[in-house]
Amino acid sequence: MTGATTIDGFAKRIRSGEGGLISAWIGIPDPLFVNHLAQEAFDAVVLDMQHGVWDIGSAAVGIGQGRLAGKPVLARIPLGDFASASRLLDAGASGIIAPMINSVSEAKAFAKATKYLPLGERSWGPTLAMNHTGLSATKYLATANEQTVAIAMIETRAALDAADEIMRVDGIDGIFVGPSDLSIALSDGANVAPDTAQVDGVLKHLIARCRAHGKFACVFGSNGERAGELLKMGFDFVIAGADTQQLRSGAATAIAAARRVQAS
Ligand code: 3PY
Ligand code: MG
């Protein structure tokens, strides 16, 4: 780890270009999972509300558990659910990841829900966020657009075509590439193969476009080794596998160790 993670310094850190950030990814909707995983040397925690099974109440408590452990918590919202984006920021999320942002108009709708005027039209009501940050209403209003990040997922052919325009939208702070959906798109539905040379070519192109637009680049890595490759490729923020995979591989490793010793 190259820099200190403070919760409300996270947005500055991911924008800074220092790179090398690794985040947990949690779909199991129990705030205590956040408490446990946040003890590890992750730079952040993402709650996956698109394919994971969090509801807004458990996510709000999960954000608090991450903060208790000193970690910024981001949330991936369900498809097109920009109302939840505002509510999660109100609950103290450090950033929102929106899946399948395929056009400038979708990017603008996302920015509108996550940024206060003049960038967007986020509505006022950050009661939990003010509790967590200790900021007054005036100070929260003045700093929230900078201290939280809106991240648009690029994972379809339409999004690839519109990537430059999406990155130019004021209020979109960075992108997050979904290599599984991207691989389905690139193969016209023939297969899901996120770790191929074809996908890598697109990932490198998107990193270069982010650099050109002064935006940061995030990506999902299916395990630790893949996450390391993606950091080397130049991504600023990576996932090193989901909670379910880490839980099962930890269990499989323990069982294999027990059987190995039993048989020795
Ligand atoms: C994808 O790879 O499509 C994602 O959305 C990451 O989970
Ligand atoms: Mg996806």
TrEMBL record:
The keyword GTP-binding does not apply. Gene3D superfamilies: Phosphoenolpyruvate-binding domains (3.20.20.60). Residues 25-248 form the HpcH/HpaI aldolase/citrate lyase domain. InterPro entries: Aldolase/citrate-lyase_domain, HpcH-HpaI_aldolase, Pyrv/PenolPyrv_kinase-like_dom, Pyrv_kinase-like_dom_sf. It comes from the Bacteria. GO terms for cellular component: cytoplasm. One of its GO terms (molecular function) is metal ion binding. Keywords: Lyase, Metal-binding, Plasmid. Coiled coil: none annotated. Belongs to the HpcH/HpaI aldolase family. PANTHER family: 2-KETO-3-DEOXY-L-RHAMNONATE ALDOLASE (PTHR30502), PHOSPHOENOLPYRUVATE CARBOXYLASE FAMILY PROTEIN (PTHR30502:SF0). This is 2,4-dihydroxyhept-2-ene-1,7-dioic acid aldolase. It comes from Rhizobium favelukesii.
